[in-house]
Amino acid sequence: MENQSAAAAVADQEDRTKKFCKKSAADSANQCSSDSREMSAKKVDYTALVGAADSAPAQTAEAGETISSAAPAFLMASPPSQHQHQHQHQHQRLAELVPAGEAGAVIEGDDIELFAADDDDDDSLAPSDAETERSVRVLRPVSTQQQFDDRHGGRLVRRPLLHRLRDRLKSAKTGCPPDRGRLCGALVQLLPFLGIMREYNLREWLLPDLISGLTVGIMHIPQGMAYAFLAELPPYLGLYTSFFPPLIYFFFGTSRQISMGTLAIVSLLIGSLVRKNLPAVAMQVTPAGDNVTAEAFIVNATSMAADQSWGSDPLIRSRVSLACATCLCVGLIQLLMGILRLGFLTRYLSDPLISGFTMGVAVHVFSSQIKYVLGISVPGRNGLASLPLHYYDLACNIGQTNFVTLGIAAFAVVILYVTKEFVNPRVRKKIKAPLPTELIIVTLGTVISYAFDLKKNYNVKIVGTIPTGIPPPEFPDLSVLQPSMAVEIITVAIIAFSVCVSLAKIFGKKYNYEVAPSQELIAYGICNTVGAFFHCWPAGSSLSRSAVQDSMGGKTQVAALVSSTLLLLVLLFVGKYFETVPNCCLSAIILVAIKGMLEQVKEAPILWRLSPYDFWTWIVTCLGVVLLSVDYGLIMGLAFSVFSIIVRTQSPTSSILGRITGTDLYKNVHAYDDIEEVAGLKIFRFEGSLYFACAENFRESLYRKTGVNPRRIVQQRRRLGEKYARVTATSDASTATVKRTFTRMSESEKAEAAKAVGLDWPRVPVQHVILDASTWGYIDYVGVRALSQAIQEYRDIGVAVYIANPKCGIRACLERSDFYEKNRYDIIYVSVHDAVLAAQFDQRAALRKSEQQLLSASSAAIKVSSPTDGETSAAAQLRKRAEANGAEQDDSAKAVTKV
What we know:
Number of domains: 3
């Protein structure tokens, strides 16, 4: 069965190969002859054994013969000629190239032949055992990039910007008028719920959506009131924020699993903003003549947020106005970003930065709840080092701890933690729904507080008055906004969107549907813009609620409609029964809820092992948020991320490549044992783009890695030339004359002349340097200049530089610059292996030319020598030089032949 399936797979592959090529046999023959003429006696014969470490050693032949080296079988070719007699002749000729007993293929020009092991008559690649080696031999010309493009119709893909703009304008003018289908598509894109409802499976999806919606709605009640403490706002506003945004997101959002509502990070940012700008707002809302200091205002407002007589108090009203105005601005910013398609900006917020930021925010959240757990009042701190100062205030007021409050909070934390970590995992296996522990704690706390009158008897702070019903829409008071709040508002908008869209993409990948970041921005913007009219602060998607909605089988945002319906019932009928909830119970819910955020500290060791840059980004961001402030910490994290990117791009790694034995694969010489450098040349790979920040580093790395510094060699030769001129100067020939004569000599003559007077002329150990440009992402003006300068400096010392496998964008940039005014087109090759073979051809041609010159010089010296009196001193010296150079060239020839 295995052989039959393998044979079927091979037959299918042959059919696809034959379908791929539509050329006739005559065209194939013409193309083969054309390629043969273009080869100019240069033909590459690749040999590779699939699955084998080595193959037969490469051979070097005379001009017109085949040079064997190695290459993988990543090639496509046309099927063989359809003429039977030509096919048989071609089959017999190519079969000789496949080693006996091996399955393999031979590709030459437009002809492809497949051979089975031990069966030269079968032209199909039959299945073989796993241990059978399959070989492929490819015959093609050594190609520069220009030859390759001319032969195969290559062109630069990216067109000039003006041409692309002109084509867009032309297509816009000639475009067809909007039809019904296009309008429907645009409407579905703006209102994604239309597409979701169109494919809604009522029988299979409705029940899971109902169950998950009810479960998430129950979670909204305690979380909404608890996160209001983080935002320094009345708890009932958390119920509004949990009701309106999910309802609006149902119509405009593209994610089907996330749960919109209150979010710990955003709530803390709003609380920090409100607390910082509260004194400025107080001056606008406090009646004239009232002498209220900023510190007294903050302490009074904070205590009123924890105690409750909301009424129409101007201090509470000012905080609500500030939060609603901020919510409106955040919504408008997100809406504008969505319209302008700026969702890509979140790509610059890396995962380590977001993780470090949320970890620092979690520390702030944890710290902000300690005063509610202890039942003490401390002034709010703003600005730099607010968190360390907050702990100082806690230490100073630790003696005021309310032990009843502390006991209730400790009991609630233990119950919540045990249920979350140990009970719910087992319960979900049976009923799939987690126990609503938060709602149980809130309900139990409400009953106990009401029964024992904890506020009056034990001074336990409670939630207080919760208005019944839905508030009428009210335009936010924008006069409370200050210019200094702009940075903080933009920070809230970006952070809220980044966290939410990241969570949406996670569920999109899990369930294989697209999440459009720009449409998500529009959805979040509309949620916050509309929510601002109903006393909401900026909303976001919670990981805990979204995970529960997903685990309960929620399929669409219909679950959000169900949870909003449940919250509507709470606001209309049940809200007043939660007025006696102790604040410490809500704080306990927050402390347990942020456990997952605090556990992000475990990512630090992983980041250290993977990338020190990401590790330090995490550390700098987290410490900046904790020790300085939330906004300054984020700015520090962004700055360090940009700095790390600059450092990494301006100092990329580089290496010298060698050839894996028996292949055409070139790898780092320090990464493999079975590898050797090609004699007479160096292959340099620069693992980065070539632009202004790393241009100098590129040149320095090139000179250092290759061991050939042309600047240093030129300086050494110049000094030796001056020294030679001083040593050999006579009364008849001045130093300047000798120096000019020495300058006109060839490199070999200079070396001989310097050696004659006891000077060691610096020789260059290589004749070619090959730059592997496959890793270059882009190149700019400074990079082009640095590349041209390096090529020219190598050329000055007799070293040729080839560029291998540059991307289309790199070649386009070189074409637009003056690079080809100083350099030839034929220094760019399609692959490293082509460049290596071309360099070997050049070395062999130079070797033959040198041999012919030496033979001619030797013959001339022999003819002018005296047969009787012996050779003259000049002829003898010339003969010695010829013999010495001949021996040296023989060694070089042997080295090239070995390669």
